[in-house]
């Protein structure tokens, strides 16, 4: 067991940081505490902590990552195991103590490569550094008993713990949407965290870019994606902005998200509205698909997102703000220099009206706000934050946004409704409501129609909707439905 005398925080300026402050478990504990204590996303909090912990080697980075995602996904099952030996109130008040105890339990139950004595020792050191000697002694007693129980009873399967840890409402909603076996496969689908998606612009040679990227980052892996013809799947690539071609020939975009943009079927010369554009990831792909001669406009509720979009995609100032386009931005000026751009941006709340957005678009993409349940393996904190009551509220919002955005399409124009959810309440149920006659006075009908883009036609099996699933397609989970707009 490690020397406890050193586990009491950072006294002495010249002393190098002890692993209880700077090791992979300390990094993971701080991330978990931030996720529990604020609205932090696990991946962003982990990135930030890892940037501060430059001394960690790749193995330690891997361990910190596994501990964060593992604890968040299996949290309820781990807490239930610990509850066999200690009341929750004794170890959950301080988030860092809680993190170290849960990481110790995770290591004991699921990490073959960490011997039991080391798992207990590391967790006790961390708990003691956070809560003092009595907390350390408590953690030691509890985790030793758990270690003995795991030794005699065997290691439980991680997949079962992850399934059992999902909130009851979510398990139920997934079973109703996908069936029991698929719901469990969805919940336990790996890899966790999933690889990074890159989206190569139409007209660029994906194979050539894979070779270029492999040469530029030899320790990373780059493979062609299986679903999107534009996707490169990267592992260990680090900061994408440092790689050749970023922002001009390709951007970072999850493979399934690319499929949603392709599903719209935008063609050269067409006028396209990205009605919930956010920062413009799908606008980027669409703006290339309509070349030559077409145009993409982008709309969103939040002017700040549109500002970022304009900075990246070289669009003129937002009509509702009248502000000038900023230079720079996450994807730099490179996107702005590329041939395609977004023509106009509109700040609009579709639940209230259509603002300044003109009519007559050939195609409208409604990438609607949703529960985000489809991205659960990438964002495990979603299970902690969403509630059953969110679903009807989100479904109403999705219907309102899609109906109003449809009024901007020309007669016979196409609309794709898409969400990064796999729950029926936000998928088929919303598509059915959109297809039903409405007496909202908006003067449009939405007719379900087969997709006209090849990729989406294949995914939908010739039908008018498709679902992407991590355990089937290797992407995040999504739903898309195609409509023809009639006036
Ligand atoms: C799923 S996100 C879109 C992501 C984006 N298309 C992308 O590819 O990065 C949904 C977007 O809808 C926007 N939104 C939410 N409510 C809205 C409303 N009432 N009117 C317009 N946009 C809204 C959000 O700001 C958010 O950017």
What is the topological layout?
Layout: H1 19-22, H2 24-37, H3 42-52, H4 58-83, H5 95-110, H6 116-131, H7 133-153, H8 158-165, H9 168-178, H10 180-188, E1 196-200, H11 206-216, E2 221-224, E3 231-235, E4 250-252, H12 255-263, E5 271-274, H13 281-289, E6 295-300, H14 303-313, H15 334-337, E7 342-347, E8 361-367, H16 382-385, H17 390-406, E9 409-419, H18 428-435, E10 445-448, H19 454-459, E11 465-468, H20 470-473, E12 478-486
Parallel strand pairs: 5-6, 5-8, 6-7, 8-9
Antiparallel strand pairs: 1-3, 1-4, 2-3, 9-12, 10-12, 11-12
Helix pairs in contact: 2-3, 2-4, 2-5, 4-5, 4-8, 5-6, 5-7, 6-7, 8-10, 9-10, 12-13, 17-18
Features:
disordered N terminus; globular; 487 residues; 3 domains; binds S-adenosylmethionine; eight-stranded mixed beta sheet; single chain; Rossmann fold; Alpha-Beta Plaits; N-utilizing Substance Protein B Homolog, Chain A; 20 helices; alpha/beta
**What is the helix tally?**
20
From the spread of the alpha carbons, the general shape counts as globular
Q: Could you give me the name of the CATH homologous superfamily of the largest domain?
A: Vaccinia Virus protein VP39
CATH class of the largest domain: Alpha Beta
Q: Give the tally of structural domains.
A: 3
Low-confidence stretches: 1-15, 320-338
Query: What's the pLDDT, averaged over the residues?
Result: 90
End-to-end separation: 74 Å
Gyration radius, to the nearest Å?
A: 24 Å
Query: From the helix content, strand content and strand pairing, which structural class follows?
Result: alpha/beta
Largest sheet: 8 strands, mixed
Helix content estimate: 40-55%
Q: Ligands in the structure?
A: S-adenosylmethionine
Q: What is the fold-level CATH name, i.e. the topology of the largest domain? A: Rossmann fold
> At CATH's second level, what is the architecture of the largest domain?
3-Layer(aba) Sandwich
- In percent terms, what proportion of residues is strand? 5-15%
The total of beta strands comes to 12
Family: Belongs to the class I-like SAM-binding methyltransferase superfamily. RsmB/NOP family.
Protein name: Transcription antitermination factor NusB
Domain SAM-dependent MTase RsmB/NOP-type: 186-486
Keywords: Methyltransferase, RNA-binding, S-adenosyl-L-methionine, Transferase
């Amino acid at each position: 067991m490690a020397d406890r005398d050193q586990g009491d925080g950072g006294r002495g300026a010249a002393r190098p940081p002890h692993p209880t402050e700077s090791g992979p478990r300390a990094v993971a504990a701080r991330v978990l505490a931030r996720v529990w204590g604020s609205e932090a996303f696990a991946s962003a909090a982990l990135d930030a902590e890892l940037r501060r912990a430059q001394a960690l080697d790749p193995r330690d980075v891997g361990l910190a990552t596994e501990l964060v995602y593992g604890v968040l996904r299996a949290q309820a099952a781990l807490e239930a195991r610990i509850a066999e030996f200690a009341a929750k109130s004794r170890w959950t008040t301080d988030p860092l103590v809680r993190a170290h105890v849960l990481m110790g339990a995770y290591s004991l139950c699921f990490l073959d490569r960490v011997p039991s004595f080391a798992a207990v020792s590391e967790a006790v050191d961390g708990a003691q550094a956070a809560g003092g000697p009595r907390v350390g002694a408590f953690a030691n007693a509890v985790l030793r008993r758990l270690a003995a129980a795991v030794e005699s009873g065997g290691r439980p399967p991680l997949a079962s713990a992850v399934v059992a840890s999902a909130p009851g409402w979510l398990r139920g909603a997934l079973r109703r949407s996908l069936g029991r076996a698929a719901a469990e496969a969805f919940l336990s689908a790996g890899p966790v965290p999933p690889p990074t998606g890159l989206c190569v612009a139409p007209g660029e040679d994906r194979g050539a870019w894979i070779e270029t990227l492999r040469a530029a980052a030899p320790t990373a892996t780059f493979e062609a994606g299986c679903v999107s013809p534009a996707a490169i799947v990267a592992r260990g690539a680090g900061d994408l902005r440092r790689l050749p071609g970023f922002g001009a020939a390709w951007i970072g975009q999850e493979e399934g998200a690319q499929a949603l943009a392709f599903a719209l079927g935008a063609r050269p010369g067409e006028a396209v509205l990205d009605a919930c554009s956010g920062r413009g990831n799908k606008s980027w792909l669409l703006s290339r698909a309509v070349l030559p001669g077409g145009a993409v406009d982008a709309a969103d509720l939040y002017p700040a997102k549109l500002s970022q979009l304009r900075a990246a995609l070289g669009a003129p100032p937002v009509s509702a703000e009248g502000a000038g386009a900023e230079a720079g931005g996450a994807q730099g000026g490179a996107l702005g220099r590329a041939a395609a751009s977004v023509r106009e941006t509109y700040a609009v709340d579709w639940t209230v009206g259509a603002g300044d957005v003109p009519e007559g678009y050939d195609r409208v993409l409604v990438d609607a706000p949703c529960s985000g349940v489809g991205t659960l393996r990438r964002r495990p904190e979603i299970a902690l934050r969403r509630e059953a009551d969110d679903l009807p509220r989100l479904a109403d919002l999705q219907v309102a946004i899609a109906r109003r955005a449809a009024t901007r399409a020309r007669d016979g124009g196409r609309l794709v409704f898409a969400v990064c959810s796999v729950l029926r309440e936000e998928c088929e149920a919303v598509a059915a409501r959109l297809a039903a006659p409405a007496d909202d006075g908006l003067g449009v009908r939405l007719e379900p129609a087969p997709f006209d883009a090849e990729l989406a036609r294949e995914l939908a099996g010739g039908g008018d909707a498709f679902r992407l699933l991590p355990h089937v397609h290797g992407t995040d989970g999504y739903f898309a439905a195609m409509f023809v707009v009639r006036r």
